[in-house]
Design goal:
2 domains; flavin adenine dinucleotide binding; Thymidylate_synthase_ThyX; single chain; FAD-dependent thymidylate synthase
């Protein structure tokens, strides 16, 4: 694998870092051609045409021979949505390792939407968001969330100070907005599937922001494959 240190900031304190990359667009083309005992050594127009054909016709196995590894720092609500694409995916070569507050006692960090970032409930949809709410109402909810986080942190720190095990003390932490860190290793096909699903118009805005970052990092290394596999997500 080729080591990478490409990094994109997301939300207020989150990020995605591309740690490792195995393969390229040429890997995909050669994986498809092995059935005919053929191999290319430099990507050309024929290879690009082949990749477009594979993506268009749904021949996805060649895209599983390339792999990307990301380090992600995101709110727990994003992590748990993301996790569905590991446990529920039929794509091979997915792995997930997450930090645990059973062992890590670093200072907790939380996602706090700004006053103008609160969204209304959509009128006729079971998921997603509506229009932004009034700024003054947003200011109220931002303040309330900050107070809630402060209270939880105070109780968490008090429990730690009084000898409660971290694995139980963490119960006091407001969970869904707390940032967690994990490594996600996935095939190129799996990465494209995640991007397609989480760039959809009804996806939660916060995870859309991470999907855009994943796409931006992946397309630098697999420009033809990502473009073809994610066309409908951009339309």
């Amino acid at each position: 694998m080729a080591k990478s240190n490409e990094f994109i900031s997301v939300l207020d304190q989150g990020y995605i870092r591309l740690v490792n990359v195995m393969g390229s667009d040429l890997t995909v083309a050669n994986a498809a051609r092995v059935s005919y005992d053929k191999e290319s050594f430099e990507l050309d127009e024929k290879d690009e045409k082949l990749i477009r054909f594979l993506a268009r016709e749904g021949h996805t196995s060649p895209f599983r021979h390339a792999t990307l590894q990301f380090e992600v720092y995101a709110p727990l609500m994003v992590a748990r949505q993301w996790w569905k694409y590991v446990v529920g995916s039929d794509h091979t070569m997915d792995a997930w390792n997450e930090s645990s507050r059973r062992y890590v006692t670093e200072e907790p960090t939380f996602y706090i939407p700004d006053n103008d970032e609160w969204r209304s409930k959509p009128a006729n949809s079971k998921q997603g968001s509506g229009e932004p709410i009034d700024y003054s109402d947003g200011k109220h909810f931002t303040g309330a969330l900050m107070r809630y986080v402060d209270d939880g942190l105070a109780m968490y720190e008090k429990a730690i100070e009084q000898g409660i095990a971290p694995e139980q003390a963490r119960l006091f932490l407001p969970a869904y907005g707390m940032y967690v860190r994990w490594y996600w290793t996935a095939s190129l096909q799996s990465v494209a599937h995640f991007v397609n699903q989480r760039l959809a118009h009804d996806a939660q805005a916060e995870i859309q922001a991470y999907a855009k970052a994943v796409n931006a990092l992946a397309v630098e290394h697999f420009p033809v494959s990502i473009e073809e596999l994610t066309k409908h997500a951009k339309g």
